[in-house]
Known about the structure:
By secondary structure, the protein is α/β, with parallel strands linked by helices. It contains twelve helices and nine strands. The protein has helices at residues 7-16, 34-42, 60-68, 82-89, 107-114, 131-141, 153-159, 170-178, 218-230, 236-243, 248-258, 272-288; strands at 29-30, 49-54, 71-76, 95-99, 119-125, 146-152, 179-187, 192-193, 200-207. Strand 5 (119-125), helix 6 (131-141) and strand 6 form a beta-alpha-beta unit. Helix 9 crosses helix 10. The termini are far apart.
Amino acid sequence: MVNVCDIQVMKPLLAEHGFHFSKAKGQNFLIAPWVPQSIAEQAGVDDTAGVLEIGPGIGPLTQQLCLRAKKVCAVELDERLEPILDITVGEFDNLEIIWNDVLRLDLPALVKGEFEGLRPMACANLPYYITSPILTALLEADCFESVTVMVQKEVAQRIAAAPGSADYSAFTVFCQYYAQPQLLFDVPAHCFLPQPKVTSAVIQLKVRKHRDWDILDETVFFRTVRASFAMRRKKLSNGLASGFPELGKSGAAEVIARAGFEANIRGEMLGIPEFAKIANEIVKWREKQ
Ligand code: SAM
């Protein structure tokens, strides 16, 4: 197997194919072999797993996934990488490479078609410029058992944040609604070529089998969350009145009271069950009008 993380191997391979890194495509390739090995191991990839990899690059993580999984589908946007991947992962017959933009794929259909009878997982060293859209698509697809990804460390901290902390955001609530996050390990910038300006971290999102919250309307729930964080420094009632103009200030105060909270509560202190209570009161308030 070609040691793609060895810079003495990688640089001539890239040069031979006239490959230049594209910043716009988020191309920072791994040059520390322990990283793809740890991602594949800690993701729990084994011969019962079907793994979707996003952005194989020249294949360091792809190799580790193919060594462990029953089947791997790797989606890559940059077709210049095709002759290089032929050399680095061409030997694996449990690998299919899909040349496309991951955001254009029908993920539930792909999982159904490719991973029948397997535990579907997503694993990736993500292109950072589209971290949020990719995580949103992977979680909303609701067809993966887990999502194990390398992201910027600050994004990982935001995903795993607790209510009341500075990192807690609407995106935290979105991710934790679908999955339970666990920070796995940090990856310093010197593990990549070219080096990114930020520290990275690997996070695992274990997708919830059951969402045990009584939510009357998911759309209203997520709108409530977004409205609550849109005016972070202000009272929740201001955020709700602005996010749901039909409520006005008095309706916002009424739903907060009916949900059982103090009038001056701040949205950033609330967890998913509390947002669910408020969103449900908004639904009921609307029905009364
Ligand atoms: N997995 C490789 C590694 O760890 O060395 C490369 C990771 S690099 C951070 C991100 C990869 O995602 C690049 O190969 C890039 O071309 C690819 N990529 C960027 N945007 C993409 C998209 N929309 N869909 C699929 N792949 C994409």
